[in-house]
């Protein structure tokens, strides 16, 4: 039977759905990583087969058409079946992604991808009567069990699935349901508590960065690196950035190697829905300086990330902290000015320092000095080699500065140029 399903799965949407569903059921029973990956791969092939029979601009791809221009009356019977098979495969694939591993990015990807096929299947339920099995998967209640029994009583391909699901429910799920519910309740409490802890660690880390208490900030960055998996690339970069603000002898005494930590960042980058996370991409690009045999140290990396996370808007509300931060930035500026043999990063570093200095001066209501710093960045545009983001962001900050001073024409012009 399996061989027949495999043979027809390349040309028949129902054979493709049946073959992939068997793999999904195996994965659900074993929870083995290899079975889950195999089932996901089979689902992708089934989706490709179903796609051949679907109408262009189909129901699943345009949910707005469900309530406006396109209804199921515009679909042939074959196209309607293709929509259901396609949505069913999508739902099973998304469900498998939820349990693929404990990585939160994959969990979110699965959750987002489940939403669309569920909506489509629930709509198709109202106009097409043979979706008992999938509706049960969407809404597991007494109504779902009733519809499973009804689905099992009719002569259709899904009748077997309905019978198997009822059998599993009666012989297995009901026996362990109480234990599962208790397990899930306790784990949700534990998970929520841990996430709240990690959120608190993140906020405490930034609070200590604003105060320039680098040792305390490091302790919370280190905790995030050890305990949280939300974005290891960011946490590791933050840890290294904070350590780079401490005297080298303190770092050595703590048993840390800043360069080695920065080199770990690139290998920790994640992808979400096929795309890299912008802040992680930024951290990876900055950390690449340390991949060289003769690495060039980043200048004020912790303050640069503070700007990326919009931290200066918070810092700027506290004049005393902003004054202290300005002193730190001016010390970095003086150090750069004394460099005897400039590296290829010299201009980029100088411009970064001028942007950060200008921000502090802006929040300290010293607009003429802030404008001077910002202009130095803009005038260096052609000499910047790597951090090209500095110029548009500086133009934007200049626009905000002019807005703060009431010069609306200049503000609009600079913000438009930045855009």
Task: Explain the overall architecture.
This protein has 419 residues and is mainly α. It folds into 4 domains: 102 residues; 45 residues, no CATH class; 112 residues; 109 residues, Serine Threonine Protein Phosphatase 5, Tetratricopeptide repeat. The chain is 72% helix and 1% strand. It has a two-stranded antiparallel sheet with strand order 1-2. Helix 17 packs antiparallel against helix 18. The radius of gyration is 29 Å and the shape is elongated. It starts with a helix and ends with a helix. About 7% of the residues have low confidence.
Q: How are the SSEs ordered, and which strands pair?
A:
Elements: H1 2-8, H2 13-30, H3 33-51, H4 77-98, H5 104-127, H6 132-138, H7 142-153, H8 157-210, H9 214-227, H10 232-243, H11 248-253, H12 258-264, E1 271-272, E2 275-276, H13 278-287, H14 301-308, H15 312-315, H16 319-337, H17 346-363, H18 367-379, H19 390-404, H20 408-418
